[in-house]
Design goal:
Order of helices and strands: HHHHEEEEHHEEEHHHEEE
Helix content: 40-55%
Strand content: 5-15%
Strand order of the largest sheet: 5-3-2-10-9-6
Largest sheet: 6 strands, antiparallel
Shape: rod-shaped
Number of helices: 9
Radius of gyration: 46 Å
């Protein structure tokens, strides 16, 4: 036997709940999956355009900064510090093999020479020519000219400032038993016993660097070239320090007369004369 439902219960069963109603209406309003994906891609593309433009602007800014740095730094010369040093050493070999003493006075055993008594050739052109043979562009030629001019002039100034401070080069000339004394070589003497007031031009690294950089055109006065010049200056100054400390003066020939020679009363005396200009004294 079935029990009949009351009208109130039938109405409760047939009427859906508000939650169910909301669920169905929300589901029916949602866009299709295809439409949602396409719309999201469009949104992402629209959002990525400003980012792409920002990245492009950043890349352009970095390129401009790189160009500015390159312009400020400059391109270095192709000549290496070793190239410069080799050229200077070759020039120095000619310089010292051709150097000779002139106007050095002999008074008995002593030799006296004022500044300018050492004569030597200008090897600026030789140094320049040595480096120019390795040059690849105008910048290299400008560097070669600067190095040649500075180092050649520094060698000349060193020579022109050198003195012979009364060194006992000729002991036998203290009393020579003849009217004249034939050419005789000096007693070998360290080069440093003949000081030069311009020695710092060969041994001061900073001085060499600054002088060469001052001779370069303005567009070459950059950190790249200064670094190479400073490296060369360090090696060159060290080379000249060793040369000055290890070199001896040989074969400086001296001769003269004996003014007091008057036989049979005076049979000899000190020699008065001068040195004979002879190359090869800086060995």
């Amino acid at each position: 036997m079935q029990l009949s439902k009351s009208p109130l219960e039938e109405k409760k069963v047939q009427t859906p709940s508000p939650a169910a109603t909301n669920f169905h209406s929300t589901s029916s309003m949602a866009p299709p999956a295809m439409f949602s994906s396409t719309q999201n891609m469009a949104v992402n593309q629209n959002l990525s355009k400003p980012a792409q433009e920002q990245q492009q602007q950043q890349a352009e800014t970095e390129q401009n900064q790189t160009a500015e740095v390159a312009e400020e730094t400059g391109v270095g010369t192709n000549l290496s510090p070793n190239d410069m040093l080799d050229a200077v050493i070759d020039g120095h070999q000619v310089f010292k093999s051709s150097a000779r003493f002139t106007n050095v006075q002999i008074q008995g055993p002593s030799a006296i020479g004022a500044p300018g008594c050492l004569s030597a050739p200008n090897v600026s052109g030789l140094i320049y020519g040595n480096l120019a043979g390795k040059a690849k562009d105008q910048e290299d030629l400008a560097m070669a000219k600067a190095v040649g001019n500075v180092m050649g002039q520094h060698l000349l100034q060193w020579a022109s400032s050198l003195i012979v401070p009364g060194l006992p080069w000729y002991p036998s000339f203290s009393f020579f038993p003849a009217p004249t004394a034939p050419p005789m070589p000096n007693v070998p003497t360290p080069l440093q016993s003949c000081p030069s007031f311009s020695e710092y031009l060969l041994t001061n690294q900073e001085m060499i660097t600054n002088q060469i950089m001052s001779k370069l055109p303005s567009e070459m006065k950059n950190d790249v070239n200064r670094g190479k010049v400073a490296s060369f200056s360090s090696m060159a100054s060290g080379y000249f320090v060793i040369w000055l400390q290890s070199t001896f003066l040989y074969n400086v020939l001296g001769m003269g007369t004996v003014p007091t020679f008057a036989p049979p009363f005076v049979l000899g005396g000190p020699v008065v004369g001068k040195v004979i200009p002879t190359s090869g004294v800086l060995n």
